[in-house]
Design brief:
- By secondary structure, chain A is of the alpha+beta class.
- Chain A is about 45% helix and about 20% strand.
- Chain A is built from 17 helices and 15 strands.
- In chain A, strand 1 and strand 2 form a beta hairpin.
- By secondary structure, chain B is mostly helical.
- The two termini of chain B are about 35 Å apart.
- The chains are: A alpha+beta, B mainly alpha.
- Chains A and B meet through helix 2, helix 3, helix 4, strand 1 and strand 2 of A and helix 1, helix 2, strand 1 and helix 3 of B.
- Strand 8 of chain A pairs parallel with strand 1 of chain B.
């Protein structure tokens, strides 16, 4: 029975989502590949004349090879530029502002419904701008693998509100997913906030800061206030990385002089309380709203609270300027990254809680220089590492430990502290940064590097300039490695080649053929060196140096030459019979003589390299490496 | 309506950012995160190591407050939140 009403409507082919390239393009690529391969073989055969294979028309085949190569590259270029870019462009389509504004409204409502307590958000904000006041210890454990690094971070954090709290555990680049992420809270499975609630929390943080600056809706604030607030929220809520320059400039240009918490700079002596009114203790978290006639900033100015030398001198403008710097920080980070928030279940007030996050991280591929391209192509990307230790300045006590991959050891490590604004060539928040970490303990073993950084709050040892703290680490193949197996084979080859060379005329003389034993004799190292090269898989090649790789490949080539030379001589085929005088040495039998020189050189180089690497390993593991 | 501070006006797509920065570092530099910009700078200075960003927990700022300062700022903030409808 016909059921006309259930017919599936036809969709235009061009409107269907597809990831396949057109059939004609695939067919053209296959044809170009085939012509490329055939013309390459025939062009090579026409250049290298052999008795078994000979080709004619070398110019024609060479031309065909060049043309097919150009055609193949052109097809790939066409596909990359026209097809994949078009698909990516449709994927990258920017959500209009109306959509973002609707999302912001929904996110704010969702968050407010589920977390109506202001103390939760106050606790979150304080961690975002003063993490070292809440994170007692951060421990990062790194495991290097083929995909990059597996990072396990354990936070010891204080919940100062005694109820459900939100903890910022990660900033993750927008449009990049966190792989293999696991989250534990006090050893049990934990969770991050759902996306909408997570963004809703950040929207309310921004709303709260702007309302802190200008709490009275009736009082006239700067004309650009509302626009700056909404722009910042759009920036943070944007699903894609965006340029924060305009928003940061708008925030910097905001006139905060009419804010009730704005005041002119108060000089603070190096010790002792600052002059000025001090009318009682400051309200605690979740305390009563401040008295409009006596705003908190004026009632208890920074610096008046104590004599702690680590307290930075307040910037001109007081608390209002601090809040401005917080907004700039939120804009600069939120423009390209999400703040991932972990839900910390209710506990006793000030109880220390442990949060463990593990995930797989890839390297930051910020450039594609010929050097990095070549390193990646060869696979040498597991030996030199540079870790950006952003969390080191966000905690009182910081541990960083890294385990060398199997078959490698920590050869060298080095700390560096660079001026962050100079490094980035970009303005950064300038409000009181945590002083640098003057105390540092490093513990190394052949396969392990453990760094402990402790904040002594010693301002004289630090700097208020934001710094990029990085740890560079160099790994090397741990002896015995591939080179030592190659040394044994090289020794075998040298002994046999030189022995046969010593009795050359006896073995390959004018008498009856010696049989196949010379070929078999030299076939053994050929097979073994082939096996050695076959062990160089993706994991092994990242441990090797270029030198080890070159030595292994040259050993295979010399072994192949030895077995070929033995086969020719056994068959009484002389490639050349003229002695070759090199000045310092005369090669009576040039082919075999060159083989003897080659194996001797290879053996000598192998011995030098193996001894050198063993010495380097001994030095690196028995002495305190310089930082 | 798009405004001067509208971030979406300059959004050119995350997946193209790094390639674009490779081609012209100045063009889309602003779309890179601080560590990506730092990595770019280090690469230009000849750094060949594999650079890994271990992440961060802050808003890129650490005010390094003492207890009283922290309490005062949180009090300002929470009172503002209460005027926005929070308990």
């Amino acid at each position: 029975m016909s059921r006309i009403g259930t017919q599936v409507p036809r969709v235009k082919r061009s409107a269907r989502p597809t990831i396949s390239e057109p059939g004609w393009l695939t067919a053209a690529k296959i044809v170009a590949d085939a012509v490329l391969a055939i013309s390459l073989v025939l062009a090579a055969a026409s250049v290298i004349k052999t008795e078994a294979l000979e080709s004619s028309g070398s110019g024609w085949w060479s031309t065909a090879f060049v043309l097919s190569l150009v055609a193949r590259l052109g097809l790939s270029r066409f596909a990359m530029n026209n097809l994949w870019s078009a698909m990516r462009a449709s994927e990258d389509k920017v959500a209009p502002n109306d959509d973002i504004d609707k999302f912001i409204d929904k996110a704010q409502t969702t968050y407010l419904t589920n977390f109506p307590d202001s103390a939760t958000l106050g606790h979150l904000l304080a961690q975002l701008v003063d993490p070292s006041g809440f994170f007692d210890r951060v421990k990062e454990q790194i495991e290097i693998n083929l995909a990059g690094t597996k990072n396990t971070t354990t936070f010891t954090v204080r919940n100062t509100i005694g109820q459900d709290a939100l903890v910022p555990i990660f900033t993750q680049r927008k449009r990049v997913l966190v792989n293999e992420m696991k989250l534990l809270v006090d050893g049990s499975a934990g969770s991050t906030l759902p996306y909408r609630e997570n963004q809703g929390a950040m929207m309310h943080v921004i709303n709260g800061i702007f309302t802190t600056l200008f709490p009275d809706p009736q009082a006239p604030g700067p004309a650009e206030l509302s626009e700056a607030c909404q722009s910042l929220k759009r920036l943070v809520a944007s699903p894609r990385p965006v340029d924060s320059t305009a928003v940061v400039k708008a925030i910097r240009d905001l006139d905060l002089t009419s804010s009730p918490i704005h005041k002119s700079a108060v000089p603070v002596p190096a010790s002792g309380p600052a002059p000025g009114p001090a009318s009682g203790p400051a309200p605690g978290p979740g305390g009563h709203p401040p008295d409009p006639a006596n705003p908190p900033g004026a009632a208890n100015p920074p610096g008046a609270a104590g004599t702690d030398a680590s307290v930075p001198t307040p910037a001109p403008g007081g608390d209002a300027e601090q809040w401005r710097e917080v907004l700039i920080g939120l804009a600069q980070v939120g423009a390209h990254s999400y703040f991932m928030l972990c839900l910390l279940p209710k506990s006793d007030k000030n109880a220390a809680r442990k949060i463990t996050v593990s995930c797989q991280l890839g390297p930051v591929q910020a450039s594609n220089t010929p050097l990095t391209w070549a390193r990646t192509l060869i696979g040498l990307n597991m030996r030199e590492h540079l870790f950006y230790l952003a969390r080191a300045t966000e905690t009182v006590s910081y541990h960083f430990s890294v385990e060398a991959p199997e078959g490698m050891y920590v050869h060298r490590h080095k700390f560096s502290q660079q001026d962050l604004p100079g490094l980035l060539n970009s303005p950064m928040p300038t409000a009181g940064r945590r002083p640098l970490l003057p105390d540092r303990v490093v513990s190394t073993s052949p396969t392990h590097l453990h760094v402990y950084l402790r904040d002594t709050s010693d301002e004289s040892a630090g700097s208020d300039t934001p710094r990029a703290l990085t740890l560079g680490m160099s790994l090397r193949e741990r002896p015995p490695g591939l080179m030592e197996a190659g040394l044994l084979l090289s020794l075998y080859l040298a002994v046999t080649v030189w022995t046969v060379g010593h009795f050359h005329d006896t073995v390959f003389g004018s008498g009856p053929p010696p049989g196949t034993w010379p070929t078999v004799l030299f076939g053994i190292p050929t097979l073994l060196s082939g096996w050695l090269v076959s062990r160089i898989n993706a994991g092994a090649i990242q441990r090797l140096s270029l030198l080890s790789l070159a030595m292994s490949l040259s050993l295979a080539a010399i072994s192949a030459c030895a077995v070929l030379a033995a086969a020719f001589k056994t068959g009484k085929v002389e490639l050349t019979d003229e002695p070759l005088d090199l000045g310092v040495v005369v090669l009576t039998h040039p082919v075999w003589g060159m083989l003897m020189v080659a194996v001797a050189l290879h053996l000598a180089l192998s011995i030098v390299f193996v001894v050198g690497r063993a010495g380097r390993y001994w030095y690196a593991t028995s002495s305190i490496p310089a930082e | 309506m798009a405004t001067a501070t509208d971030p979406t006006v300059v959004d050119k797509g995350a997946s193209r950012n790094r390639r674009a920065a490779d081609a012209d570092p100045a063009a889309d530099l602003a779309l890179l995160s601080p560590i990506e910009r730092a990595a770019l700078q280090l690469r230009e200075e000849g750094e060949g190591a594999q650079i890994t960003d271990l992440g961060s927990s802050s808003a890129g700022i650490n005010l390094n407050l003492n207890d009283d300062e922290r309490d005062r700022l949180i009090a300002q903030f929470t009172s503002a939140l209460q005027s926005l409808g929070f308990k």
